[in-house]
Structure formats: C-alpha cells, structure tokens
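Figure 3 (text version): structure tokens given as input.
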C-alpha cells in the first residue's frame, strides 16, 4: 500500500475478469463472449459515425439510443438509463440505490462476483443467501420476512455462473414481498432463453432490469449496457451519472448500439445458433460423464464426478483452451464453459476426452 492512497483502497478486492491472453490458436471459452461477430448494420453505423464530427462531445443523454431501447420494449425513454457497459450501470445502481444507512444488500451466495466488489467499494453490507442444493435460487428465502430490512435485492437471471433461470412468477413474488426496496434483475444472458422481468415493470415499481450488449449482441468491445425501471428510479441514476461522468457513451458507441438494438432479426438468428450449439455441447459433456446444470445462458456449468475442476481447467489451458474455474466453496469442482461455434465445442470435447482418458 502506497502512502499516496486513500485509506479505503487497502481493503478493496477488485473483481478479476477472465483473462484475454494474446496467443495463437487460442480457444477462448472463459468470458462468455459471442462466437460470431456483431450485426453488420452496427459495424456500418460505427464506420459512418467516424467523421470529423468526433471533435464534438457526444450526446450526453444518449437520446437516440434510449429511444431505440424504449421502442424495442414498448417503454418511454425516461424509463431507460444507459452506461459504459452494464458493469458501470450496476456501479451506479449500487451507489444510487443500495447505500441505505448500513442496511444489507440481499443476494445469492453464488452469483456474479462483481456484486460483492461493488459492496466493498461503496461500503454496503451483504446478506448472502445460499442457493438450494440443486444450485437454484429458492424464492421463499427472499419472500419470508426477516428481522432487519434489506437495502435491496440483486441477482442475475439466468444466474451466473450456474446458467439456471428463474420464472417470472418467482421474480414477481420477490418484488411483491419487498415493495419499498429496489429488486435488481441482471439479465445479461436473458436473450439465450429466459423470460425478461421487463414484463413485470407495470405491476412492480421497484423492479430494475439491467441488460448488456456484450453477450447476445456480441459487442463486448463497444461497452454498452442499460437499465430499465420506473422513471423516478432512472432519475436517481441520472443524478449519480451526472455527478461522475456526463458522457459515459462516446458517439461511435451510441451509433453502433442503436443499429444493434434495431437489428432484431440478426439477434434472433445469432441467439438460435448459440442455443442449438448449447444443446449439443451439453449432450457431448454428459456423454463424457459430466454433470451439466440446466442452462438458459450462452455458457454451461459442469463438473465431472471423477476429475478435479481445477486440474481439468489447467490441462485444457495447456492445449490453449480457456474455460473459467472459480475457487469458491461449493462450485470449485465446476467449469464454466462459454458456448462457442459447433467447431469450438468439438475441439473442447475432444481435448476433454483425451484428458479424461489419460488421467486415472
Ligand atoms: C458479462 C456480465 C455483465 C457485464 O457486462 P458488460 O456490459 O460487459 O459490463 C454483467 N452482469 C453479468 C451477470 C454478466 O455476466
């Protein structure tokens, strides 16, 4: 720790993202990127926006993008908040909605690990709720009354890294049990098979839905995410944003994101390609003896009863195949494997078959 640091820096445990090494013949199945590129229309729009107009600041309200998102979901633009990736949107949500005089944030013990990093950054206590034995979120754990009132609730749906999705009835029950606190549903993977809680906004003013263009729209490099909620909640997020960075999205990102949002045919085609490959991959892994959790995301979460998860991950790495392994209690035997192209999945399964055959 440097004497130049602020005091709280010593206590921070930053989020560790999946690695992005520069190696030839690398098969990257570790960060849930889409195996196919973004909509060609998005690429055209980005190129068309690369003009001398870049000398000007971008639209700080991202009006066109918020309109496109609102149209897609049948909402008003004042119900849409956009940010530099959904990670930034989440950071503003934690800062703006969950800092409530020491009350804890409720979340599953196994979920997107960035949530705990934000809690440490913003000094928000956590109440971790263990997943059920089958790794699903047990609704009654969130609806039964408890002594201290939480500051809010957050989970991903489908959950990460399990891939298991919740029904809208269950999300609705959680929101109804806590009408006075925000219930944030991180839908980073919703396009791959789960139902969106956007359908619940009319009935529940406390629901906040977070989306990203990084996964299903294959634009992780563009950094665009958004939140959808009641206009009063969005107004709060705008206050945080305008106290931090008024221009989170550059002009190229806004142009590309609008085109990507509007190209719904391309989104459907690309999601279908991934979900078909997911079914194949799950079958191939099961045939190799893996237990594969039921996934509605663009990754599968799988463990082998006879082979250590960490050892499998290291052995794959020697063959330039990256998957994600978490050294966390209860899930340290699992591999989180991004669904790639059918060829990617085949290369992975062949490598796994060899590793399993070699080690007793
Ligand atoms: C990938 C992911 C994000 C972050 O997405 P960005 O928009 O790229 O910042 C957020 N939440 C979950 C659950 C994710 O898997």
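Below: residues designed for each position.
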């Amino acid at each position: 720790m440097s004497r130049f640091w602020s005091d709280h820096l010593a206590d921070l445990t930053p989020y560790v993202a999946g690695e992005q090494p520069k190696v030839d013949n690398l098969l990257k199945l570790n960060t849930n990127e889409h195996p196919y590129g973004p909509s060609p229309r998005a690429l055209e729009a980005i190129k068309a926006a690369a003009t001398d107009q870049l000398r000007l600041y971008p639209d700080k309200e991202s009006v066109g993008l918020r309109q496109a998102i609102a149209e897609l979901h049948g909402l008003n633009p004042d119900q849409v908040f956009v940010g530099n990736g959904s990670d930034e949107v989440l950071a503003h949500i934690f800062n703006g909605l969950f800092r409530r005089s020491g009350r804890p944030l409720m979340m599953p013990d196994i979920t997107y690990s960035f949530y705990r990093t934000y809690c440490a950054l913003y000094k928000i206590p956590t109440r971790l709720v263990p997943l059920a034995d089958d790794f699903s979120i047990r609704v009654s754990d969130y609806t039964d009354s408890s002594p201290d009132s939480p500051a809010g609730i957050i989970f991903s749906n489908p959950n990460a890294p399990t891939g298991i999705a919740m029904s809208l009835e269950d999300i609705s029950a959680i929101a109804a049990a806590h009408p006075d606190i925000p219930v944030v549903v991180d839908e980073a993977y919703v396009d791959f098979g789960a139902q969106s809680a956007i359908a619940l906004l009319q009935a529940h003013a406390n629901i906040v839905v977070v989306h990203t263009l990084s996964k299903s729209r294959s634009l992780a490099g563009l950094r665009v995410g958004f939140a959808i909620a009641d206009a009063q909640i969005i107004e709060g997020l705008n206050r945080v944003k305008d106290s931090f960075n008024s221009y989170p999205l550059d002009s190229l990102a806004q142009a590309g994101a609008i085109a990507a949002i509007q190209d719904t045919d391309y989104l459907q085609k690309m999601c279908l390609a991934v979900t078909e490959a997911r079914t194949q991959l799950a079958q191939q892994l099961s045939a190799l003896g893996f237990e594969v959790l039921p996934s509605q995301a663009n990754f599968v979460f799988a463990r082998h009863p006879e082979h250590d998860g960490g050892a499998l991950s290291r052995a794959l790495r020697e063959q330039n195949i990256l998957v994600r392994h978490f050294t966390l209690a209860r899930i340290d035997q699992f591999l989180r494997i991004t669904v790639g192209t059918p060829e990617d999945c085949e290369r992975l399964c062949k490598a796994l078959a060899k590793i399993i055959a070699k080690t007793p």
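The mean pLDDT is 96.
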